[in-house]
Amino acid sequence: MTIHHHLDDATLVAYAAGTLDEAMSAVAASHLAWCAQCRAAVGVMEAAGGELLAGLDAMEISSDCRSRTFALLDQAIVHRFPSPVRGSDGLPRPLSRLMNGMAINDIPWRARAPGIAMHDIKLSQAAKGHLRLMRIAPGKAMPEHGHGGEEITMIISGAYHDKIGRFARGDVADLDEDIEHRPVVETDAPCICLVATEAPTRFKSVLARLVQPFVGI
């Protein structure tokens, strides 16, 4: 597998620091499972963060602060995922874990629009945004759109192209609200993507905006 599109540096820093939200972390971890280049970059960032912490002077803390910190840890939800190279059924292992080992051929897809089906992946109650798998039919062109916030899309199988380039297995489109594009799936196979979003998509056409509440993206 040759990966041409990688996670943005800001995303890698947030992942290394443990501050990336749950949905985005799931896509980032899935990409890292397949991408040696981004794994190496995260390793460097984590090492640099460790050196910075080691260089800080020790500070006295109150017993009340310690108690409140441990109480918060009991409520914390871990967003980090391990990044081994393979998972079940050709999926990255972080994604396999979230799907409880479900094979991709057994996913209960729900049709949302002609040529588009989705499967929502359950996150914790405290999670923000959404995480879903999307299957788009061969040759299908998505309406031109922008994003209401950050969005990370990882290609699991198949490929699409837009004005940014061609995205195939393992590639990620790490986009913000300034990007508008019109993905077109290649004709030989459906494109299955793992998508994390902060906010609903901003479609440009009136028709797409009218059907958006029923499609769910």
Word description of this protein:
It is a single chain. This protein has 217 residues and is of the alpha+beta class. 32% of the residues lie in helices and 22% in strands. The protein has helices at residues 9-17, 22-34, 36-54, 63-75, 93-98, 206-215, and strands at 110-113, 116-120, 130-136, 145-147, 151-157, 159-161, 166-168, 172-175, 184-185, 191-197, 201-203. The strands form three sheets. The chain has a six-stranded antiparallel β-sheet, with helices on one face. The longest helix has 19 residues, at 36-54. It is globular. The two termini are 29 Å apart. Residues 75-87 and 204-214 have low confidence and may be disordered.
Summarize this entry quickly:
The protein is 32% helix and 22% strand. The protein has helices at 9-17, 22-34, 36-54, 63-75, 93-98, 206-215, and strands spanning 110-113, 116-120, 130-136, 145-147, 151-157, 159-161, 166-168, 172-175, 184-185, 191-197, 201-203. It is globular, with a radius of gyration of 19 Å.
